[in-house]
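Order emerges. For instance:

***
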Amino acid sequence: MTPQAPTGRVAVITGASSGIGAATARALSAAGYRLALLARRIDRLEALAAELGDGVVPLQADVTRRPDVAAAAQRVKNELGGADVLVNNAGVMLLGDFGPDRDSDYPKMVNVNLLGAITATEVFLDQLRDGGGDLVNVSSVAGRTARPGDAVYAATKWGLIGFSECLRQELLPDVRVTVIEPGFVATDLPTHITDPKARQAAEELYSHVTLTPEDIAAVIEFTLAQPRRIAINEVVVRSSNQQH
C-alpha cells in the first residue's frame, strides 16, 4: 500500500524539537500535513518551522504542565482549525540501577513519558474526535522486553502500551490508535542519562545497533496514510541486527 498525501490534515507532534519528533515533522510536512510543533525548546521549534515553511506553528509547551498543553491546543484550534493527528513523542530515558540515589530521575520519566502523553491526549481528544482522527503514541521495545537498569523507564513504556490498547477499544471507530515501539534509535536520549555507568553502556550499545529517527518517521507516516478502514494498532521496529 502506497501512502497517499492528506488534504490539509493537521498533526500535532510533542517532543518535536529533535530526534523522532523533528524527523516526523519533516516527513509529515513533505506529505502535505499542516503542523503544530510542541516542545520546551522554542528556538529549535522556530528553526524547524522556518525550514518547513508555511502551515507550521511552533508552540512552546511542557507536556508535564497541563496549562501549557491546553494553551497550545487552543492555538491549534484557532490557527489551524483543530488537530486531526496527535503524535505523543515527548520522552526522557534516564537509565541506571534502581535505588534511592536516583530518586529524582523517576518522577521525571513518569511525568514526561506517561503522564505527559495522557495529558496531551486528554486535552486534544475532542479535536481528534471531530471528524475522525489518529492518535500515535511512541513507546519503546522497553515496553515489552525489560532489561536491568530500565526499571522505571520500562514501567512508563509498558504503561503507555496499556494506555494505548485501552484507548484503542474505547475510541473506535472515531479515533484510530497506534502505538509505535522502536528499538535503539540514534537520538540524543542517551545524553540525558545521569548515571555515568549507565550512560556509557547506552552510548556504546547505541553506537552498534541503531535505527535513524527518519526510519521511525517513515513508519508513522505510513501508518497514518492508510484508509480509514485499516487501523495499524501496534508496530515494533527494531534494526535488523538488534537481538532484544
